[in-house]
Amino acid sequence: MAPKSRKAALEQQATSLFRDKGYAATSMRDLATHFGVEAASLYSHIRNKEELLYNICFPLAQDLFSGLENLPKDLSATERLLQALISHVTLITRSPDQSIVFLQEYRHLSEPARTEFLNMRKAYEQKFKLIIRQGIRSGEFRKIDEKITTLALLSAVNSTPYWFRKESGLEASWVATLLSDILIHGLSNKTKSLQESEGQVRRKVALRKGVGKVEKITKTKTSTKTK
Amino acid sequence: MAPKSRKAALEQQATSLFRDKGYAATSMRDLATHFGVEAASLYSHIRNKEELLYNICFPLAQDLFSGLENLPKDLSATERLLQALISHVTLITRSPDQSIVFLQEYRHLSEPARTEFLNMRKAYEQKFKLIIRQGIRSGEFRKIDEKITTLALLSAVNSTPYWFRKESGLEASWVATLLSDILIHGLSNKTKSLQESEGQVRRKVALRKGVGKVEKITKTKTSTKTK
DNA sequence: CCTACCGATCGGTAGG
DNA sequence: CCTACCGATCGGTAGG
Asked: Whole-model pTM?
């Protein structure tokens, strides 16, 4: 809503249609009709159809990448993973439709954009993999398969745009924290030993508070945590 | 390989193309060329393009559904979840391309097939959600959000067709067990209390066996922990 | 942003 | 399984 420019409004409309019907099945006439102009008029704002897809995929890719680069350097793997996931989930839930197009339609980019995109994704996954590795080396994480774990983990958090709605009152950071908690501690209710690892006791208590059903979050929430 | 009928071979070729280019971006002429005939000849095997998509999506949907219905009835939630995930991962890794089309292209089905498909998926997710709920009630699982957990969990396992290759020597049941282990026990290396919950000790030992890196499985692994 | 229009390609049919 | 062909629609351009 409240798009800055006409072009931004057009990209927003394209995002919505690409999300619903897919890039290939969305025609410029579809788009024009929803935008309220004739098909030929679209080309006063854009050069071609693919430019729309490009402008949906790459800014988000860039934002996600930057999000990881801006993480504090002196964290434990557990904390790094949490922060990385919060960054990721915050960004993709901020624009769910854009994220879904980003996740599903990038392959319709022509070369060399497509390869460039895949390289960014690979590098991004690599950063997560390194956090996992760091956690295994430090003894924070068990000796799980790094690659499989990384992909399963990213896949799990990438499901958020499909069900996350801002109107539900959920906060992205809360969702990220909840997912991190599941991924790090598992579903199991086994009693953990009293010896909690370094300095994560406060974090953990806070995590537990945010774990219940949706309706309860406005009460205590996770904000009680850091202070 | 070794397709029973010409029609089956055509569906296999269609699966491969739909997987690589998407349903909408794959033309009947593409398909015909790869299949080695003229476009018009395809219609002696099929009624229309959508029939191909239908025959890719629905049999797999049916198989997945049956997989859950055939689970033994007297299991703990932890065991049920493991069995359900093994069934799921085994089926989708058996035909990775078909699974990817199933996951990504079903939306191009026309009505009423599309709605029928979505209803099956909903019911399928519901069955997983019930296992989670059962686990929470029995105290096996922590009080996590059922819906979010279910979707994140299915999303995590649905990433397998994207990287799983039979030639890698991995076994589907091993992958399923590994993913279950991550989801149930988490990444964390926190020492668990000695009081393991009812009768799962043997299973757990078995799980741990499948946890290390691929090459190292037979050596020591995480099993050093519990004792 | 419009009218008018382009060559290419789409899914599919007729008839053998 | 082929040749021949269909009406519809595609992304995009010319020219105003």
From this structure: 0.85
